[in-house]
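Budget justification aside, the reviewers requested a transparent look at the raw inputs and outputs of the sequence design task funded under Objective 1. We therefore reproduce one unedited record. The lines immediately below are the structure tokens for a 395-residue chain.
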């Protein structure tokens, strides 16, 4: 998660927000929990939503950059070319065509000492099938071959939620005798019975579609609805992703996903608008057989256009580049081991177990340093409805 260095040396910033919105609590334990919640809330939503005017907000869509699926996250998020399951709706919508049965997926992730909850659910269905026609065409070698109508398609629906729940709100818990909005009593204490609680949460709902265009080329797109809220403040937006997948042979895949391609607007009920700049994810994967299993090195690069000169690994003017990659070894489609390095410079590890209709995947992200609040553990489930009547092309 980008911005993970947020928690160090930010007492002044948190205190100013406490003063501004009235989140005052006495007692070290309660105060510490509240301040942690406020810190994460700022990380999720940013104070920019309360400022006037429209501007490019660098981290407005950061919650959508975390990623989904234990397999992909175990590979450092390098999945734009390797994706072949329901989570492709997020990583590369074009790759949804690779599924042949309906699939469901769930993932849960707790971050920063279980303070932040991150959840994902997705479902995808294959649609249509390729068909050989009576006509013929000449291939590149001049050989006549039957023409094929490429009708294979797929569609999916996914939802992501990132949230901090149960944040205390003490704005109405203080007795202001003179009504000037100031609490001058040196021993002032809130009325605990009047403390309420609210959530800070970001939601993204994806509607995805994919279609095969040629023997080695696929395209896809997603429409995503965004909802962000912190207490009574909320913002709504709509964004679009365009994607392509190219498979020149059975072992090599090249993919691209242009997220928020038109720039995504998030409009808040405060009158403020945020703009989420586009991100181009490009990558490749190569698979080969070794030691009785399949080895798959993958490599991706995230290209952003919002001037991340200091947080990015490399940049040219306002364009930044964050490479990440990983390696997966899948032994006889039974068990898989993974290692990766993600775009926020963290080592990731993962493992997966393949059952008849169920995949269970686990990933671990390592965070080091005094300013971190714990490592991240993710587990995801992928259920495949592997019945003949649901298979692609079944009558």
């Amino acid at each position: 998660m980008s911005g993970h260095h947020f928690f160090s040396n930010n007492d002044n910033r948190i205190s100013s927000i406490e003063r501004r919105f009235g989140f005052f609590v006495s007692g070290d334990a309660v105060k510490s929990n509240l301040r942690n919640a406020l810190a994460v809330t700022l990380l999720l939503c940013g104070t920019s939503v309360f400022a006037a005017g429209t501007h490019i907000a660098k981290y407005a869509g950061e919650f959508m950059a975390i990623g989904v699926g234990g397999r992909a996250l175990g590979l450092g998020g390098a999945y734009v070319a390797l994706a072949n399951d329901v989570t492709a709706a997020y990583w590369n919508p074009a790759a949804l065509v690779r599924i042949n049965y309906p699939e469901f997926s769930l993932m849960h992730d707790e971050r920063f000492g279980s303070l932040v909850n991150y959840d994902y659910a997705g479902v995808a269905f294959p649609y249509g099938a390729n068909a050989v026609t009576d006509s013929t065409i000449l291939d590149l070698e001049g050989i006549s071959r039957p023409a094929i109508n490429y009708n294979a398609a797929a569609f999916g629906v996914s939802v992501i939620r990132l949230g901090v729940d149960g944040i205390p709100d003490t704005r109405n818990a203080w007795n202001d005798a003179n009504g000037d909005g100031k609490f001058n009593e040196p021993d002032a204490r809130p009325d605990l019975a009047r403390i309420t609680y609210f959530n800070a949460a970001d939601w993204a709902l994806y509607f995805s579609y994919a279609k095969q265009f040629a023997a080695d080329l696929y395209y896809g797109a997603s429409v995503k609805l965004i909802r962000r809220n912190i207490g009574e403040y909320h913002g709504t937006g709509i964004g679009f992703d365009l994607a392509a997948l190219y498979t020149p042979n059975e072992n090599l895949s090249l993919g691209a996903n242009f997220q928020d391609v038109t720039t995504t607007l998030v409009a808040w009920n405060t009158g403020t608008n945020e703009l989420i700049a586009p991100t181009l994810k490009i990558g490749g994967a190569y698979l080969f057989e070794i030691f009785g299993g399949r080895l798959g090195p993958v490599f991706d690069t995230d290209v952003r256009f919002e001037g991340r000169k200091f947080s990015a690994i490399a940049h040219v003017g306002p364009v930044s580049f964050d490479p990440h990659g990983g390696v997966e070894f899948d032994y006889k489609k039974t068990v898989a081991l993974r290692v990766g390095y993600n775009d926020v410079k963290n080592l990731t590890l993962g493992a997966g177990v393949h059952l008849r209709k169920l995949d269970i995947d686990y990933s671990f992200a390592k965070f080091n340093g005094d300013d971190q609040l714990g490592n991240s553990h993710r587990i995801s489930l992928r259920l495949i409805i592997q019945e003949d009547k649901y298979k692609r092309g079944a009558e």
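Residues 1-52 have pLDDT under 50 and may be disordered. The chain has one domain: 11-390. Computational costs for records of this kind are itemized in the attached budget.
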